[in-house]
Design a protein that fits this description.
Two copies of one chain form a homodimer.
Chain A (H helix, E strand, L loop, with lengths): L15 H15 L8 E2 L1 H7 L4 H13 L3 E3 L5 E3 L8 H21 L2 H20 L2 H19 L2 H21 L6 H18 L3 H25 L8
Antiparallel strand pairs in A: 1-3, 2-3
The first copy, chain A, binds a DNA duplex (30 and 30 nucleotides) through α3.
DNA sequence: TGTATTTTTCTTGTCGACAAATAAAATACA
DNA sequence: TGTATTTTATTTGTCGACAAGAAAAATACA
């Protein structure tokens, strides 16, 4: 029998296809469901999501623009690799953006921003309590992205978002061997950061942002040094 | 008569279409040939460049990813506006990236980088001599982009490139009423920056980068204040 | 058996066509 | 004449199909 009538074609709203694919792939990449180096097949995705290749292609172009996938001409496209041998540029950029965005948030935030920030702060604290590593990673990124938004500099915000994304991938890797000591500390530091922002204490915010970032970098480097044996494929 | 045989279909290499459209539109946007707010018609472009809408669409998606065009769903896409009423976020980001990239270049550059940088330095000096405003803008951006490359932090480099692009649009506007005093000064400052980088004098590079950036910002703000009457359409 | 060449296969890049969504124009109605 | 509603027109978003490129497989040849 043919498939006429049986499946009612699953109507989608007219521009939602690309966003769907984009969000799906982005999440799968950032959570390492698709590890670095994984090939991405357009036709396979197309038939899995029951749509043409066109919207999928558009999503892939966007992801490539954000550096999450690499496209070699005429040949397969794959999830972007992480340069584990030299994370320094990443760390440098991350620390600076932590500082700058926190500082700007202290300068430029509006009252309504704080409730958003506090919301993510609580989400993060909840994730720490339930020891949900994936949720911790995601809510921590959301927390700092919200601070960046409150700083109201779209250039910094977009770079920071990109760094936080990349950070999600790296953290996802290390949280396998996660020690429970540091998340609680981060909750406290987050609370201090919020207080500094609210008080519009620019210098303190700057200092806390920097210290917080360096804590994270140090932790990651420690974890990295410890289990450098577990190597990710490719 | 039909057009069979007459025009031999103008064969293009297989992936070159998108790059062609992308480069073309990018240049026209940055040089204000397409001023902010200009509508971009896909079909019109398609028949002008004698290709299908698909590669044009891909180029537009890329440009949208870099913030050079805005796409409203189901409706026309147009060249991104510049928020002239609040250039502060732009200036803040620009100054910081000038500093950081110059500093990192002093730290991380390799000998071969210097010749590239010097090349653009000379191009800029030549543009100043011939008083070619468009060339000055473009070579100045290329000069600083080359310094950023020598700093070897892709995150900073890509943000800085984006800022330099945006700067090209803004400068392009003000160079209409351009006063010849400052380009020569910039040539000298560029030379000092090169010297600091070559000497690996990180602190001096940082200081020079910051000062240079602030010079530019100040100039633009002065020009902006002076002829705030000439308003660009939309 | 090992290397070079041809053939096949598989994936991407491009095309033309159609349908949905929105704006503009035209019509109806008071 | 002015407003509301329908109709038309224009532009985007999606689709299926096909051709070009490159790797893999198969064949030819030594």
């Amino acid at each position: 029998m043919t498939d006429t009538d049986s499946s009612p074609t699953l109507e989608r709203k007219r521009g939602s296809g690309v966003k769907m694919v984009y969000d799906l792939l982005r999440d799968e990449i950032l959570d390492l469901v698709l590890p670095p180096g994984s090939p991405i097949d357009e036709v396979q995705l197309a038939e899995r999501l029951k749509m043409s290749r066109t919207p999928i292609r558009e999503a892939l172009v966007r992801l490539a623009g954000e550096g999450l996938i690499d496209t070699l001409p005429n040949r397969s496209t794959m999830v972007a690799n992480i340069d584990f041998l030299n994370l320094n540029p990443f760390f440098d950029a991350l620390v600076l953006m932590y500082r700058v965005t926190t500082r700007l948030a202290a300068q430029n935030h509006r009252p309504e921003d704080l409730s958003v920030i506090r919301g993510f702060h609580e989400d993060y604290a909840a994730a720490v309590v339930t020891r949900d590593a994936l949720a911790m990673i995601a809510t921590n990124a959301a927390f700092h992205a919200a601070i960046a938004e409150a700083g109201r500099n779209p250039y910094f915000t977009s770079l920071f978002r990109r760094l936080l994304d990349e950070g999600r991938r790296i953290l996802r890797l290390y949280y396998q061997s996660y020690e429970e000591q540091f998340p609680q500390r981060f909750v406290d530091e987050h609370a201090q950061i919020i207080a500094a922002i609210e008080a519009r204490d620019v210098e303190t915010a700057d200092r806390l942002g920097k210290a917080h970032a360096e804590q994270i970098v140090e932790q990651v480097q420690m974890l990295f040094a410890r289990n450098s044996k577990l190597d990710i494929a490719l």
